[in-house]
Amino acid sequence: MQEKINQYTAEINSFQSKNAEELESFRIRFLGTKGIIKDLFEEFKTVSSEDKRTFGKVLNEFKQLAEAKYQTLKDGSETDDNSSKSEQDLTLPGEGFEIGARHPLSLVRKEIIEIFKKLGFNVAEGPEVEDDWHNFSALNFPEEHPARDMQDTFFIKKGGEKGDIALRTHTSSVQVRMMEAGKPPFRAIMPGRVYRNEAISARAHCFFHQVEGLYIDENVSFADLKQTLFYFVQELFGEGTKVRFRPSYFPFTEPSAEMDISCSICKGDGCQFCKHSGWVEILGCGMVDPNVLENTNIDSKKYTGYAFGMGIERITNLKYQIKDLRLFSENDIRFLKQFQSEMI
Ligand code: PHE
Questions:
Q1: pLDDT value at 100 more than 80
Q2: 253 C-alpha vs ligand 1 centroid, how far in Å?
Q3: Which of 141-150, 194-203, 284-293, 323-332 is modeled with the greatest confidence?
């Protein structure tokens, strides 16, 4: 009996199944109801009682070996089966993935930048966390002046105290940095995110995006400003778009103006969007105040300049007739998908 078991053990150890049928015949041969193990247990009954102990152990170990072998081969063949299945399906089409779309604000920002680049403007960027000097003081906002309230500011507290660090309220801060760092002439636009402490609604948000512009050189006049903005508007909204300037106030420009364009939705006939006036405001602008030039060590007798600033959301609203600002930051795929055709 021991001899038989040795023989079978060798057979089991060297057994490899090539397919499910071979494995099944292995199971029947060793583990089946009329299989070898069953027979050996029958034979075991005839073993003398003093040999039963040793043989019982040997026989049990042999049974475990056969079962373990069967289980391993079975597990292996299952995984093999799966992999061979996927190999067979090589001709199936791939799963495919959806290509994303550019965010409408990115599309419009790109368009704005490209128009100004054609006019020789560079692109400048600066920090979103700013100090009081770059966001306010250098721009001629007097200390404690109510003009600071025009832009509700998120201050960053230092040790529980309201410090002079804040989230920038406009990208005019980048203009200050540029004027401080170099020498005129300057001709650049500053795109970026800005923050204001406002309750979120369809018409206001606590952050939005701006593109501001600055041009400083000898003999720059308001006429240059008008010409540049007129060209910009024709490029962005199409030829025939009318412009008008209304006097306004900003601490950093003198004179200051707000610019309206003929409503791009109703072409000036009057609609809900332009509140039936035919005009919509799109930006603020003016001649850089001499105090700002002096604050940044630029000779205000030699140099003059203009500045302007617009909200990208506002321009996007006009271009795509999006009425609720909140849509821009909700990441709703149904909204964003609509801009898919405007890729690249
Ligand atoms: N900085 C102004 C704002 O955020 C916009 C502006 C820029 C106005 C430059 C005039 C000149 O409202």
A1: no
A2: 9
A3: 284-293
Q: Which atom of ligand 1 is nearest to the CA of 213?
A: 9
Superfamily covering domain 104-342:
Bira Bifunctional Protein; Domain 2 (3.30.930.10)
Contacts of 269 (CB under 8 A, 6+ apart): 263, 278
CA of 196 to the centre of ligand 1 (A): 14
Task: Give all strands of the β-sheet with 122-123 in edge-to-edge order.
Answer: 122-123, 186-195, 207-217, 304-311, 279-288, 253-262, 243-250
- For atom 8 of ligand 1, the residue with the nearest CA is 284
pLDDT tens string 228-243: 999 999 999 999 999 9
**Which residues, including other chains, have CB under 8 Å from residue 98's CB and lie 6 or more apart?**
none
How many Å lie between the centroid of ligand 1 and the Cα of residue 339? 29
Q: Which residues line ligand 1 (CB under 6 A)?
A: 170, 172, 212, 250, 253, 284-286, 307-309
Q: What pLDDT is stored for residue 134 in this prediction?
A: 95
Best residue among 250, 254, 308 to mutate for probing ligand 1's pocket (most ligand atoms within 8 Å of CB) is 250
* 79 pLDDT more than 60: no
Q: Where are the domains of the chain?
A: 2-86, 104-342
- Cα(52) to ligand 1 centroid in Å equals 101
| Residue linked to tokens 């778009």 | 241
